[in-house]
Amino acid sequence: MTAARRKRKRFYAGCVAAAGVLLLASAVCALQWPRPPNGLWWAGTARLLLAASPVAFFTKDRALSDSPDFEFRYTGAIWRFHHMGNRAAFATQPEIYMPQFGGYDPMGVIRGIAVAGNPNVWLIAGRRLYRFYDRTRMERFAADADCLAAEAECK
Question: Please, what is the Cα angle at 77 between 99 and 142, to 5 degrees?
Fold first, then answer.
């Protein structure tokens, strides 16, 4: 075997090995990608839940910044609030104030994709808080909120 052929062979063997490593890494990442079980879209989403005081959406009709001074632990997440009154209201009835699907966009949930909801794009429908990725998704959801909420719950 010539020196040039040995060099080519080593190069191709290295390329095949690198491709194998990339394929293995992508398979491991795909297995670890978070896909919560049905009904548990909130699981492990503490980062999403801290974007704004959840009670303020109901009481002030807007997103208010949260404060680390007013924290409450619930469902394995740390919830932060704008003031002590919001914290107390949440503590008595958290299931009412929690964003549905853990703050994920319900239109993404319907498609089986976890899309983080924007705390500035939200809607209260059926006494429940929903966050959306953008206004277009919110408007589509608002047009038939009851049906789409039920469909998202089934996913």
Answer: 10
d(CA 43, CA 46): 8
Model pTM greater than 0.85? no
Q: Which pLDDT belongs to residue 101?
A: 87
Number of residues written out for the chain: 155
Count other C-beta atoms under 10 Å from residue 24's C-beta: 10
Domain boundaries, the chain: 1-33, 46-154
Cα–Cα distance for residue pair 106/155, rounded to 1 Å: 10
Quickly state the pLDDT bin for 37 (edges 50, 70, 90). Answer: very low
Contacts with 78 (C-beta within 8 Å, 6 or more apart), sequence order: 46, 49, 50, 71, 72
Sign of the four-CA dihedral 111, 117, 120, 125: positive
- Over residues 7-24, mean pLDDT: 61
DSSP secondary structure, 124-148, as one string:
EETTEEEEESSHHHHHHHHHTHHHH
Average pLDDT in the chain: 75
- The Cα 94–Cα 40 span in angstroms is 15
Query: Do 91 and 58 contact (CB within 8 A), yes or no?
Result: no
